[in-house]
Amino acid sequence: MNCYKTLNKQEFQYKDYSLVPIRFDDRFLIMKWRNEQIYHLRQNSPLTKEQQDSYFNEVISQLYSDNQPGQLLFSFLHKGICIGYGGLVHINWVDKHAEISFIMDTQLEPLSFVELWCIYLKLIEEVAFNELVFHKIFTYAYDLRPQLYKALNKSNFKKEATLTDHCFFEGRFIDVIIHSKIDSFKLRKANQSDLETTFNWANSPITRRYSFHKEQISKESHTTWFTEKINNPKVIYLILENVINTPLGSIRLDFNEDTAIISYLISPLYQGRGLGNVIVYLAEEYIKKNKIPVQKLIGFVFKENLASIRIFEKLNYTRNDQEEQLKYEKFIP
User: Fold this and answer.
1) For labelling alongside 25, which of 148, 200, 298, 324 has CA 20 to 30 A away?
2) Half-sphere exposure for 79 (CA within 13 Å, toward CB)
3) Edge to edge, what strands does the sheet with 318-321 contain?
């Protein structure tokens, strides 16, 4: 199987369905479906086998090794059989958004159009929001397939715009409709179901490097510690999630009267993507929104932990140098 250099994970699965980097062997099936459905595609004429071979050899083959390809295309499989294809196209790596592309086996459309679109969207959202940490994905569709809007609505995409009379189709002008989903982050209270996830995060070598206790943690000791924390009335333990409810990190507030000590970590899978700043900021907003009686937040940081230093300074915490660590403080109005 070919692999995309820009992706850590190559296969995305949901039940009996999966997305894998587009397969060369599926090229003529894809050509057949595109030619049958040319009416809703930005394609001027039917494809030939020679054109399809050329496209796969000259264009597709280059995508795998590119750090920031203009598109990421996948074969959409059911029990290993290709029943469609699509991906993220017109990728903007700076602004972190991309257009969604997808077509399925033409014969499946009459009975399974909405169902398969919903499954595909679930999988491509995992690529976009979990793997690439994009901010926004969207569809750009000729106003020809009402069933598409049912799938988009069921998948919580929002209608963003109608481009009136935007395309010329069979002697008339038709609209283009854009639906989008924007990644957003939220904090929720940790619960017992987060035990395994938080245990794995805590034992990551990256996490242990900047922890005050460097040794590995046993499952037994983590279970005892975690259970005590989520049940302690003087602790607020929160999990950061994205728009598709993937856990990205945790933040803990340990209270002593009107002061709270901040302890946070980001999942090793999502470090280096600016989420530390997000989780600390959202914790401050959580305190204000829930009217929690805290006047001062404190964070302790090792001097070599430059990422955390930048986060606290960006959020206007006051620095107090100590021997081995830095103390950052902020008063909450």
Assistant:
1) 148
2) 0
3) 186-189, 235-241, 247-256, 259-266, 296-302, 325-331, 318-321
Tokens 């397969």 belong to residue:
23
Q: Which residue has the tokens 């001062």?
A: 296
CA 14 – CA 296 distance, rounded (Å): 44
Other beta carbons less than 10 A from residue 74's beta carbon: 27
Give percent above pLDDT 70 in the chain.
98
Q: How far apart (Å, rounded) are the C-alpha atoms in residues 269 and 7? A: 12
For tokens 């009379």, name the residue: 165
DSSP character string of 223-286: HHHHHHHHH-TTEEEEEEE-TT--EEEEEEEEEETTEEEEEEEE-GGGTTSSHHHHHHHHHHHH
97 DSSP assignment: E
